[in-house]
Amino acid sequence: MKTHIPHSTERSTVCNEMDIVYDTFGEEISPPMVLIMGLGSQMILWDDEFCSQLAARGFRVIRFDNRDVGRSTKLSHLGIPDFRSLMKGEDVEIPYTLHDMAKDTIGLLDALHIDSAHVVGASMGGMIAQLMAIDYPKRMRSVTSIMSTTSDPSLPQAAPEAIQVLFKPYSTVKEKFIKAFINTWRVLGGDQLPMEHDRVLDLAERFLQRGVDPAGNARQLAAIIASGSRKKALGTLNIPALVIHGDADPLVPVAHGIDTAGSIPGAGLKIIPGMGHAFPSSVWPDIIGSIAEHAGKY
After folding, report:
1. φ and ψ of 141, to 5 deg
2. N or C end of the chain, less CB within 10 A?
């Protein structure tokens, strides 16, 4: 049964010189909770019903398209970085870093006149949320890092098939894009929980309709690589933190989540059995319940 919660239309506002598109769920007077999505992923990957259920727990939920994705500003004029040199650790000029993306999110809080918020990030979004906690601690009521990492280089690498779908260029031709999109989420979801094919197909079509840009994904990936490890800085945090991770994640192995929780003083850790690098609806109760319980304390 669908949860009936106020849901705004999509809106655009200028944040850190970027046009950022966002929408909200829940009552404006409720404690704000910002959701940050991962690499190349539009805000709609935070499913409408997921957001409604989270808002029903007493939050004003705000989701948005990061720069270079969906309907937010595309930085096409900045081109694609030299990945070969970047991966070798050579000095490469990159369009922006995750620090800039954290500043975008702070800009969104400013535009919405929000002094502080609960911040939840998934994958790259978790990295951005961690940097917000490091760079802007006074703006954070709590932080939740989901299927993310400290980016410590000593941690286990992704499964080869997961790396392959992450780096493989994709076509924006509808049939080819949809086929690649479905295959990507089949791989990233892992092999323990069934993929919701109809939901993923609907997402693929909506991604296309809202706007996809392979070069934007590449610039975001460069930002991840160039931003380095946050492990040492996370040890200085004094912010309520929760880490959520699946034990079947092929892209960011569960050791990364354990390391993240161990790096942040006092952080909680929730490991979800069978969850890969995806949010099938079967794990929503665990994720929503854990986020709401954690944020509800602060």
Report:
1. -85, -40
2. N
| Residue at 2 is within a domain | no
Asked whether residue 76 is domain-assigned, the answer is yes
* Token pair in block for residue 73: 């500003």
Residues facing 61 on adjacent strands = 25, 33
Alpha-helical segments (H) within 243-282: 254-263
Q: Is 5 a domain residue?
A: no
**Taking the complete model, does pTM exceed 0.90, yes or no?**
yes
> How many domains does the chain divide into?
1
pLDDT in tens, 246-275: 999 999 999 999 999 999 999 999 999 999
Containing domain of residue 171, as a range?
11-295
Q: What distance in Å separates the CA atoms of residue 36 and residue 78, rounded to the nearest whole number?
A: 23
The CATH number of whichever domain residue 193 belongs to comes to 3.40.50.1820
